[in-house]
Write a structure and sequence with these properties.
By secondary structure, this protein is mostly beta strands. The relative contact order is 0.11. The chain has four helices and 52 strands. The chain is globular and about 105 Å long.
Length: 858
């Protein structure tokens, strides 16, 4: 077995007003003694294993092993009246055991003998962060000697080594299909050391090979990969798992929206899966930039992200795929209560006595309405996620999943009745699905998903500015999607891993849209603007989607793996029905040496317009044909034995079939962007995105980890024979972070720095005949905003309290309050000399935002 320990209680906290946080600290800090909740009346005569299970179910964070605590150990004498910890320690010591505290856990260990040599007291914990991905067999050796048998802890992948003498050791960890890890460690007398490793794929075992050049394994415990702990430890707005991927190489984001642009693609070119289901618009504040996702970071194990080159299993997406899986409970009962500036949250999880059933329930409600100024409106939203897992047999598991989100949002940019700018929206988003996973034989497995998703969205907005424009809009839409998907995996042919499957959905939607706008003065003179404008669209599309895929990972040579894939997609809810889409994909993985591998990927990717994405706001009543892009990716990765990893990747994306899109030339944060006079339709013939990414990271055994990534890229559209920069193009981008952890303290700092996004310039013209001034837009996206920079900081601390653990943190987004310009609002002003000049007011992305909060786990 691979010997590893999973750290319990790594959830970090949420935010809270300062007064409440201080009150909780003063209340709870003195309670770090050993007193616990009430104990059973009589312990004498009971099995110690039963006693430990009962105390663990009651919330005491116990870690023990069946090898150490056997069923034959009985409480021979009633312990003295005291708290749970003191009584339990007395019982254990009477049986040659002891209780030791480590990082909020109580570990049952062997009681130290009176040493004849004072150096036989050290304990070593080896933590393998990606234990869920490992095959069943493995081996750990210490200084060349097999460390077997190890004492496995209560969680899968959790192991411990006792009785090690002080001195220098070489720890070697290896298992079939993974690169052997070697680490040097010094053990001191009485010391308890913890070491974390992440095993890397090698082509020796085909089923474990990843040959896609841009697949990031994000279940690491490091601060810069995105597992559950890293999401909560990194300074990210609202601890949003979807927002956290904005720190990956090749990602572009302004910081307001939770959506990201991957490698020059549009933000809607990314697909999000949760427990096997493709989610339907999982975002809060949908009608104003999708600021947060509807997924609780504490409810998931982590985020696995493809920024390109993903395999044939995933389709109908041209840029990225985000894969999220819920967190499996590791205690019989677990409760987490959080309070933050952003939300109030509760999470309940656990499993039955025999482990046949497990459950997780997560609920959050927004608190922003209590902290935002009145003139910015009142965002009210909540989300609930539930999963019930049932082990039907040793080879079959059924999980029942539900995700519901509700938004009632009012955004006010100007509250003066004479200049009112207000947007009101309501959204209900429901996803319900069953996931059945079955291992039919050791070589054949399947995963089936049956689902129903519904989204309802209503949006009304008005702008009443007598000097510029008067506009109003009314937009109602809803969509229903019934789905069935099946994925098969077969490993019975030597040297091959076959996967195939299909997906079917039945979809329908209803649209009702009305808008009107009248422009005044300078706004009325924008080139090509229709004044007034009236738009009305009604639509009720319905139909099906179909998809099939097949792929084969083939071990050509011991150091070479090849993956071939083909995908077919078709949609029938469009009018007319478009052609079938065939997507071939090829990836190659070549091991160059023990620490270096090369990955090459080519693939074709289509993306259809989803049934809920009809552009009725811009007067469009028909769906566009599916878009198409081709990806070329070359990646080289080097891993050193002392914790360093260097990744170099070059990519080129060629969009050769595109749909028209609508953008605002100057102000992308307008309340009703579709009614603004700077709204333009773009009809690119093709588009290109290319770049080079270099990432260097350090994940050692010390208290400090760090990472840095540099990207040079370019994203352009070919419009009217001219290559124009895409509005999210950033030539240079630098991201980095450093994390420090010691005892209960944890500190994280992250930097995001990139070239300012392009913007269109504007000059003022004058018509002598009509005596009017009019705007003259310059070449689209030919000018550039200021450099974007955000330095984010977070500090957190854990406290052991009478019942469970209390965590607290303080976080600041954009610590330097750097003004990151996003857009411009133009108008004319009369000068004192009698002339007229053009006035530009630049709006910013997010300013400095402090946050504070607590999380109580028990």
């Amino acid at each position: 077995m691979v010997h590893a320990v999973i750290r319990y209680g790594t959830h970090r906290l949420r935010y809270l007003p300062v007064a409440l946080l201080c009150f909780v600290f003063f209340l709870c800090c003195p309670l770090q003694a050993e007193e616990e909740s009430e104990t059973p009346d009589r312990w004498q005569g009971r099995r110690i294993t039963d006693l430990l299970q009962e105390l663990s179910a009651g919330g005491l964070p116990l870690v023990y092993t069946s090898n150490l605590v056997g069923p034959d150990l009985i409480v021979q004498q009633e312990p003295a009246p005291a708290g749970q910890i003191a009584r339990l320690r007395e019982v254990l010591q009477a049986n040659g055991l002891d209780l030791q505290q480590l990082d909020g856990l109580y570990l049952v260990v062997r009681a130290p003998d009176v040493p004849t040599e004072p150096d036989v007291t050290a304990t070593l914990f080896v933590i393998i962060s990606n234990y869920r991905e490992l095959p069943a067999q493995g081996l750990v050796s210490i200084s060349g000697k097999p460390a077997l048998p190890a004492e496995q802890l209560t969680a899968p992948g959790s192991y411990r080594f006792d009785g090690l003498k002080i001195g220098h050791y070489e720890i070697e960890i290896g298992t079939a299909g993974y690169r052997t890890e070697r680490h040097q460690i010094e053990l001191a007398d009485g010391q308890v050391r913890r070491m974390t490793v992440e095993l890397q794929f090698v082509p020796a075992q085909l089923e474990q090979v990843s040959v896609s050049a841009s697949r990031y394994i994000l279940f690491s415990n490091s601060q810069f990969f995105i597992d559950q702990r890293a999401i909560q430890a990194l300074p990210d707005l609202g601890e949003d798992p979807v927002r956290s991927v904005q720190r990956l190489p090749g990602a572009a984001a302004g910081g307001l929206s939770s959506r990201s642009h991957f490698r020059g693609g549009e933000s809607d070119e990314n697909t999000i899966y949760l427990n096997g289901l493709r989610l339907l618009d999982p975002f809060h504040i949908r009608n104003f930039h999708n600021i947060f996702s509807t997924i609780d970071a504490r409810a998931i194990a982590g985020v696995e992200t493809y920024t390109g080159g993903f395999p044939a299993l995933y389709g109908d997406s041209m840029s990225g795929v985000l894969l999220l899986d819920s967190q499996r409970p590791d205690r019989p009962r677990q409760t987490e209560l959080g309070l933050s500036i952003y939300n109030t949250s509760a999470l309940f999880s656990g499993f039955s006595a025999g482990g046949e059933v497990d459950w997780l329930v997560s609920a959050r409600r927004s608190n922003l309405e209590y902290f935002l100024p009145d003139d910015l409106g009142t965002p009210r939203y909540f989300d609930v996620f539930t999963e019930i897992g049932i082990n039907l047999s040793d080879t079959s598991r059924l999980s029942v999943n539900g995700l519901y989100a509700d938004d009632q949002i009012e955004v006010v940019l100007e509250s003066d009745p004479a200049e009112l700018e207000r947007s009101i929206s309501g959204t209900h988003n429901l996803n319900v699905w069953l996931l059945l996973e079955t291992d039919w034989t050791p070589e054949l497995a399947s995963a089936s998903v049956v689902s129903y998703s519904r989204i309802e969205n209503s949006h009304t907005a008005e702008v009443n500015d007598a000097d510029q424009m008067i506009a109003a809009t009314d937009n109602d839409r809803d969509a229903d999607v019934f789905g069935l998907a099946l994925d098969w995996r077969y490993e019975g042919i030597s040297g091959h891993l076959l996967r195939w499957g299909f997906a079917f959905t039945r979809q329908k939607a209803d649209y009702y849209f009305r808008s009107a706008a009248e422009y005044v003065s300078f706004y009325a003179n924008y080139p090509g603007v229709e004044n007034p404008t009236l738009t009305a669209v009604d639509a009720a599309p319905a139909g099906n989607t179909y998809s099939l895929f097949i792929s084969d990972r083939w071990n050509l040579l011991p150091a070479t793996a090849l993956e071939l894939g083909l995908r077919w997609d078709r949609q029938t809810y469009t009018d007319p029905v478009f052609d079938d889409q065939f997507s071939p994909r090829v990836s190659l993985l070549q091991d160059i040496g023990p620490d270096i591998d090369l990955r090459l990927t080519w693939g074709r990717y289509y993306q259809s317009q989803a049934i809920q994405q009809l552009q009725v706001e811009d007067g469009v009543s028909n769906f566009n044909p599916p878009q198409r892009a081709n990806h070329w990716i070359a990646g080289l990765q080097y891993r050193s034995q002392d914790g360093y990893r260097l990744r170099l990747e070059a990519y080129f994306k060629n969009y050769d079939r595109m749909s028209p899109r609508f953008e605002n030339l100057f102000d992308s944060l307008a309340l009703i962007p579709e009614t603004e006079p700077d709204r333009v339709r773009l009809d690119p013939v093709s588009a290109r995105a290319k770049g080079i990414e270099a990432t260097l990271e350090y994940r050692g055994d010390s208290e400090v980890n760090w990472w840095a990534t540099m990207t040079v890229s370019r994203a352009t559209d070919l419009i009217n024979g001219v290559n124009q920069k895409r509005s999210w193009d950033q030539l240079y981008a630098l991201q980095g972070g450093i994390a420090w952890e010691r005892g209960p303290w944890e500190v994280g700092v992250a930097l995001n720095l990139h070239t300012g996004w392009p913007i269109t310039g504007l000059t003022l013209g004058y018509d002598e005949e009509d005596d009017e001034y009019f705007p003259i837009p310059g070449p689209r996206n030919a000018e550039q905003l200021n450099t974007y920079g955000s330095l984010d900081f977070r500090v957190s601390r854990d406290f052991q309290v009478k019942k469970g653990q209390l965590s607290a943190f303080f976080e600041v987004t954009n610590l330097t309050n750097h003004k990151n310009y996003c857009c411009a609002d133009y108008d004319t002003v009369e000068e004192e000399q009698g002339g007229v000049s053009l006035d530009a007011v630049y709006d910013n992305w997010l300013p400095i935002i402090p946050a504070i909060g607590i999380l109580w786990e028990f």
